[in-house]
Amino acid sequence: MTTRSMGTGARVAVVAPSVVVAAALVGVAVTVGPGLPGRVATHFDGSGTPNGWGSPWVFFWITAAVAVGAVVLAVAALRFRDRRTAAMLTLVAHLLAGVLVTVWIVIALTNTAGDPTMPWWWTVVALVVAVAAALPPALVLVRAAPPVPAHDVRPLDVAPDARVAWRARIGSRLFAGIGAAVVLVGALATWLTATEDLGIAVFTGALMVLAGLSAFVLARVEVTVDRRGMRLTSTWTRIPLMRVPLDRIESCGFEDVSPGQWGGWGYRISGRGVAYVARSGPGLVARLRGGGARMVTVPDAERGAAALGALLAARESA
Question: Are 233 and 241 in contact (CB under 8 A)?
Fold first, then answer.
């Protein structure tokens, strides 16, 4: 997979947004910072009234670190071979930097003006700034990415009346660890906040526990290819995650997968289709009639594609 060259305009579009965001932070800190009091409003309730106070500079240095990190990542992304993964990482970093920088600037300006309130619409402003900073570099990197190499596989040579089936298991300790951590944090948060507002505490805790359990579902899966098509099932819960009937599959093969090609890790839905991405490496791909695809990262993807190819060949000859 060769890397496409990028023109000067494209390089500027990747780097400039993070530089502008970081420069805005520094500019406000230099001009407004000396007039900030030692304690400022740092947290606000739903009406914009401050309900938390602290030093403005702890939040500033955290925000500055994120903003500088976004600049460094944008510069490094120009040299990434896998530009789809670079686009995904850059998008996340720029969204975070845009939100944090906007919030710190608003806090600094409102506290300097002597009216430390933050109306709800400032949240919209922060999101707009974040999106404006994140979209250009991500889109440029995706457009500059080379096509994903697809490998066709020769179908298994089997008798016409033979029964063909293939099965493999794959998992991710990272998914299991994230699931356990989120469930634990959700239970702890519910216990700590139950005395303040039981309803909100239970609701928030339930959402976090549900998110953690969802990660557990993805932690260990089984992919099966047989006369019914391709299926992906959680081995711990037996919950079906993906079902692709053989009649919907036009062709198959495998790819050398990186997470950015399908939008990240985990169960992904993107313009290319639906995928289960547990790691970088080979992935079994079923290309659907009418466009789109289904993909599962699995070490033995080539053999799985050969088995699926034999089933497709048998269907065409029937």
Answer: yes
Write the CA distances from 235 to 54, 240, 301, integer angstroms. Answer: 48, 9, 19
Of 241, 230, 186, nearest to 208 by C-alpha is 186
For the chain, the domains span 8-144, 166-317
Q: Show the 3-state SS of 9-57.
A: HHHHHHHHHHHHHHHHHHHHHHHHHHHCCCCEEEEECCCCCEEEEECHH
Q: Which CATH class is domain 166-317?
A: mainly beta
pTM: 0.68
Q: Judge residue 63's burial from the number of C-beta atoms within 10 Å of its C-beta, 0-12 exposed, 13-18 middle, 19 or more buried.
A: buried
Distances (CA, A) of 172 to 39, 220, 226, 278: 45, 7, 24, 6
For residue 178, count other CB atoms closer than 10 A to its CB: 20
Cα–Cα distance measured from residue 95 to residue 126, given in angstroms and rounded to the nearest whole number? 9
Average pLDDT across the chain, whole number? 87
| 267-284 confidence digits (pLDDT tens) | 998 878 999 999 888 999
